[in-house]
Design goal:
The chain is mainly beta. The chain has helices at about 45-50, 110-115, 175-180, and strands at about 15, 25, 30, 35, 60, 70-75, 80-90, 100-105, 135-140, 140-145, 155-160, 165-170, 185. It has one domain (about 35-210). About 10% of the residues lie in helices and about 35% in strands.
Length: about 210
């Protein structure tokens, strides 16, 4: 049901649990929660992610006009449950051309958000200083997001907290900040969205890109 698991921090190959350890191992980052990416985004894959998730599965509701779900993934295994979730979407940029959005919920230290933002480490970094750069509604609560540093100058990476966990929004291109500010996010664990309201598209290549060097 998924591609081979990779390191949530760098996208590299992992060693499976064995006799000496029950954890997945990355040669660069040690013990990690394995990131499983669904080969194609489907309603069945989304249902499985929601079922296994121990953190929110964020999805805009309603979806922005002409946007589709283009990726689903989670960091964790049967032993730990899913501790980080990824929902990717693609659609038209308000000023023309294509745009991509990756929404991530994760516990501290998982590293999915930093990976897709092109950051070293696992978390957003220093405490934010000043007013937020954007606000979304997450599970009915106004939620502030601050722009983070990014190792990818083609994207806009934002992070904040929702339900006591990291909420990341990573957008391409980097000038589509207005896309996120209009969104109302629902945690699909709270009741889900009817299947008829969801539209799935081709898998987003960014989610299976080559491992990041840091």
């Amino acid at each position: 049901m998924s591609l081979l698991p990779t390191c949530p921090r760098c996208g590299g190959e992992l060693r499976a649990p064995g006799f000496w350890s029950s954890a997945w191992q990355c040669d660069r980052h040690g013990e990690v929660h394995p990131f499983h990416l669904a080969p194609t985004p489907t309603y069945a894959a989304l249902e499985r992610l929601v079922q296994d998730a121990r953190v929110p599965v964020w999805l805009p509701h309603p979806l922005p006009m002409d946007w589709t779900i283009t990726g689903l993934g989670g960091a964790g295994d049967d032993r730990t449950g899913v501790r980080g979730t990824v929902v990717a979407l693609s659609g038209p940029h308000p000023q023309g051309g294509p745009a991509d959005l990756v929404l991530i919920a994760e516990e501290p230290g998982i590293g999915l958000g930093a990976r897709f933002a092109g950051l070293a480490g696992t978390d957003p970094g220093a405490e934010p200083d000043g007013a937020p750069d954007a606000k979304v509604e997450a599970a009915g609560h106004p939620t502030a997001l601050w722009r983070t540093a990014s190792g990818d100058d083609t994207c806009c990476a934002m992070a904040g907290e929702a339900k006591g966990l990291w909420l990341w929004a990573v957008l391409w291109p980097d000038d589509c900040l207005n896309v996120i500010s209009s969104l109302s996010l629902e945690d699909l664990r709270d009741g889900g969205v009817p299947e008829l309201e969801l539209v799935f598209g081709a898998a987003m290549p960014r989610l299976s890109a080559h491992p990041r060097e840091d």
